[in-house]
Amino acid sequence: IAPAEDGMQSGSYLNPGGVFTSKVQKWGPFFSLAFRSSSCQHPLLASAIARIAKESSTHEAFMAEKGAVQQLLAMALSDSLIVVKQACSALGSLASATPAVAQRLVDSEQAMMGSLLKSTQPAAQVSALRLVASLALTSASISDALLTDAIYEDLLGRCDTSTEPPVQRYALLALGNIAFHRKPRLRLQADKRLVPILLKLSRGTVSYT
User: Quick one: how far is CA 23 from the chain centroid?
Assistant: First the structure.
């Protein structure tokens, strides 16, 4: 595939027939098939979608595909841990680069994240925590919106009492990312429970890298 010539839009490529085609047109047929309700629950396809979502050049095509975000949300609640992990990864990639996705997740999809956080499977909890951590860095308003009483208490509780080191690690990462912005940081500073928990973690043997 040849790159677009000077003066052409960066979202175009030269197909084998010598015709410039937009990235949306390029990925459209694949996404139409991939985001069928039955197809996107397949672990291999979920992995492919997550890898594609890491490429910034595909984000426009993701957003152009009707129902893509909704299907990713459904995938995040799958019974398959692989599908859950890959769906959360794709959502994190899209939210980090696309404000509309991040805003949607904090405005209307917090119930989904709450369901993931309440999972009895540590791997699903980690996937949800990584998504929260990614969202927290997108903007100050998103970070503030994430810090609901329910999510804060959940994150704090996991830092304090979880017996799963990866869950503790990503709960702490999510809190740290939320605290990156001033308004939520002031709220965290006002909670007298937080410092003792952080001191306890600092004396532990868990690596937070």
Answer: 23
Burial class (CB in 10 A: 0-12, 13-18, 19+), 122: middle
The one-letter code for the residue type at 101 is: V
What are the pLDDT digits (tens) for 164-182?
A: 999 999 999 999 999 999 9
Q: pLDDT, tens digit, for every residue of 48-102?
A: 999 999 988 888 888 888 888 888 888 888 889 999 999 999 999 998 888 888 8
pTM of the model: 0.77
Contact 200, 163 (CB under 8 A): no
**Following CA atoms 118, 153, 200, 187 in sequence, which dihedral angle do they give, to the nearest 10 degrees?**
150
For residue 131, give the amino acid letter. L
**Separation CA 114–CA 180 (nearest Å):** 22
Which CA distances in Å does 156 have to 1, 6, 42, 96? 49, 52, 34, 23
